[in-house]
Automatic annotation (TrEMBL), chain A:
The keyword Nucleus applies. PANTHER family: EXOSOME COMPLEX COMPONENT RRP4, PNAS-3 RELATED. Pfam families: KH_6 (PF15985), S1_RRP4 (PF21266). Residues 229-241 have a biased composition (Basic and acidic residues). SUPFAM superfamilies: Eukaryotic type KH-domain (KH-domain type I), Nucleic acid-binding proteins, Ribosomal L27 protein-like. Belongs to the RRP4 family. Signal peptide: none annotated. It is found in: Nucleus. It comes from Actinidia rufa. InterPro entries: Exosome_RNA_bind1/RRP40/RRP4, KH_dom_type_1, KH_dom_type_1_sf, NA-bd_OB-fold, S1_domain, S1_RRP4. This is Ribosomal RNA processing 4. Keywords: Exosome, Nucleus, RNA-binding, rRNA processing. Residues 229-252 are annotated as: Disordered. Residues 90-170 form the S1 motif domain.
UniProtKB/TrEMBL annotation, chain B:
GO terms for molecular function: RNA binding. The lineage of its organism: Eukaryota, Viridiplantae, Streptophyta, Embryophyta, Tracheophyta. Residues 9-109, 112-177 form the Exoribonuclease phosphorolytic domain. This is 3'-5'-exoribonuclease family protein. Keywords: Cytoplasm, Exosome.
Amino acid sequence: MRGLQVSLNQTQKIRLQRSLEKLESLSSKTNRNASVTVADTIPVNYEDGVLKGHGTSELDGEVVATLCGVVERVNKLVYVRALRARYKPEIGDIIVGRVIEVAPKRWRLEINFSQDAVLMLSSMNLPDGIQRRRTALDELNMRSIFEENDVICAEVRGFQHDGSLHLQARSQKYGKLERGQLLTVPPYLVKRRKLHFHHIEQYGIDLILGCNGFIWVGEHVGAKDDMVVDQSSKSEQEDVKSTTYPTSLEEQERTYTPLETRQNICRTANAVRVLSTLGFKGEAEQRSLKKKKG
Amino acid sequence: MYPCFNFSSAVFEMGNTKVIAAVYGPREVRCEYSMANFSTGDRMRKPKGDRRSTEISLVIRQTMEACILTHLMPRSQIDIFVQVLQADGGTRSACINAATLALADAGIPMRDLVTSCSAGYLNSTALLDLNYVEDSAGGPDVTVGILPKSDKVTLLQMDAKLPMDTFENVMQLAIEGCKAVATYIREVLLENTKQLEYRRGV
């Protein structure tokens, strides 16, 4: 934490110091000094029948950590929860990722995992919202849905037999994210919760905390069903007056983000950046609190 | 160790030698097939061409491969970039120590922390961690890398001849040096882990 470069004024420094001390005293109460580093022996009280989980291995009959982290015990299972490791997906996690490749029938996404994730064309809702078989035509039109470098929100579907990670986006809340900022924080700072989509009403912005440590701060998007209707009616209009001038103006209006919203996006994003640089866990309540202070 | 999000880095100083290491990954293998691709950017005392850095990167790569549990990360690669910022002898061992520190910080599963130290023999005395002046005196220079937990040697380099009994002394000294480095690295890592954990909150 030495590389911290946040300029604070005196009161902010004192407040930070106080909260750090408070956190330390809290954690020393609850934590039984469970931190280990690589090759530390993990003391096991009952020698027989210990299940060795992630981040552990056996050496000369002792359980030894292979990661730096915190020892967790669940009944007989002993594992090490790594802190600054890459994201480890679990089924049902909501993640934010970036498309890096459009491949046959699938998109490849960078999600801060040791491999790229795969989003199959068949495991996402088409923009027209109709459930049907995906045809070759749909495959050809894949770039009209997501292109390279688009930011997408999706859900972890599971691992395939070959170890690759598959995603799905079968709901209206998933899909392309536009008009906002993508932030990356260490994944251990994002806690798995029931709610990962936050709409901060007073600022008119959306905050999506991806479990993989990618955080999206963007303009609030209303119910997407309306958009679908909008688009279809718009396309009809476009068919009618495709060569006339007003269409482009209309288009501009649709993609226009008010200055105030943009400022709010930036402020929220900066708050997230500061929190993650300080190594604080990201939770929506904390975020809104911090913003009020700032 | 410095916080950064898509890679881990560490600065390691041994006397006047200062090395920075960055670890990227494990990440998807994009266009080339290789289990681990290590490289060294080295600001050299003498511009000897690329051969020296190729050799050192090979050494670091082999030493690190011995301790990384690669079978846990299929189809991915780890990149280690090591840059010598200040060289005063023992750059090789400093590079290995910096790389170990960065790997441990990156949360890459490892069998043990590899630590390395050099030792030499001058004026009928064994010397630990030679600096530039001692190194350029032309005496034998032994670089040793060990796994301190299991007492296994993963690296041993010597470019001179030494009598057997002298070598044993020098080797013993180097191993002790490695263990001292290991103790220090362990302390730093533990302190860092604790900091991260308590800042994360309950």
